[in-house]
Structures are given as C-alpha cells and as structure tokens.
Amino acid sequence: MTEMEAFARIFPPEHPMLHHVSVGVTDFDRAAKFYDAVLATLGFKRVADFAPHAIGYGTDRPEFWIGHPHDQKPMSVGNGTHLGFIARTKAQVHKFHEIALREGGSNNGEPGPRPDYGPDYYGAFIYDLDGNKLEAALLATPVPQAQTAKRSTAKEAKKTAPKKRAAKKAPAKKAKKAKRR
Fold it and tell me: DSSP for the chain?
C-alpha cells in the first residue's frame, strides 16, 4: 500500500467533519504572506480572497480562514487551541516547519515521530505570527486491524440486539392482555 493509499483510507474525503476553521490575525497582509507560503507546502492555496478582511485556504473550497476578528476587538490566541493540517508525506511535514520558521513563525516541535500519539504518527509544530499553534501531521498507516475488528463486533451486536429485544417484549405484551381480561 502506498503512502497516499494509506492516507486516503484513514482520511476519506467523502466524510469531512468540519466545514471550516478561522483564526484571527493582527496584521492581515503579513499573515497572508505567511499562510500563502506555509500552506503551499501542504498543497493548499487561496481559494477565496476577500482581502483585506478574510482569505480562505484549501484545495477546491475554503476550509481554513484568516481574518480580523468579527467583533473588531484585538485578536487574541485561544489557550488550548491547536490546528492540525493534514500532510501527505514526511517531506511535507519538514517543508511546513522549515517555511513557517523562515516566514517568522516560531518552533514548537521539530519534525519527527510522535510515539505518544501513535506508532506511525509524524508531525511538526509551530506558532504562527500571532501565536496560534499549528501542526502538520502525517499518519501514514491504516487503522490497526484490532480496532477494525472491535468496530465490526459492535456493529454486529447492534444488529442482533433489536431481535433479542423484540423477542423479550412479545411475552410481556401477552401478559398485559391477559390481565386486562
């Protein structure tokens, strides 16, 4: 199985979870230059441009936006907020990190394996120009068979459970009818 086939199996494109994510920026032009360069390393580009208010990045639709906060108050970083971008190769993870640092971001974790996140997890962490925590993450192998088997067993249990419940309810109904007579 190739790296791309494994990636497609883990992250099927037909089942997205989020519509989009937005982060506030302080200096719009500076942030746009930063994100143009950094997200290009992962194959993403501007797909919606409402400069100087907002820019949307993605492949064919905007999934990640930058812009000034809607309430017109100063931008602030969400404590605990962390955005992970999908990388398709280790080379992309390294390029993401390298370009982010070159464009003024700061290091929050060199590219490399992250065994605490899983045996095949590979990522790099940076802070953008405003302090938003970003990551390029690669998980290059399919979900282990043990997890797949557990899901199958749970699905089978759900399929058989309604039949068992129906059988238990039937005698109870007959008993209620007998009491009414």
Answer: --HHHHHHHHS-TT----S-EEEE-SSHHHHHHHHHHHHHTTT-EEEEEETTTEEEEESSS--EEEE--TT-SPP-PPTT-EEEEE-SSHHHHHHHHHHHHHTT-EEEEEEEE-GGG-TTEEEEEEE-TT--EEEEEEE-SPPPHHHHHHHHHHHHHHHHHHHHHHHHHHHHHHHHHHHH-
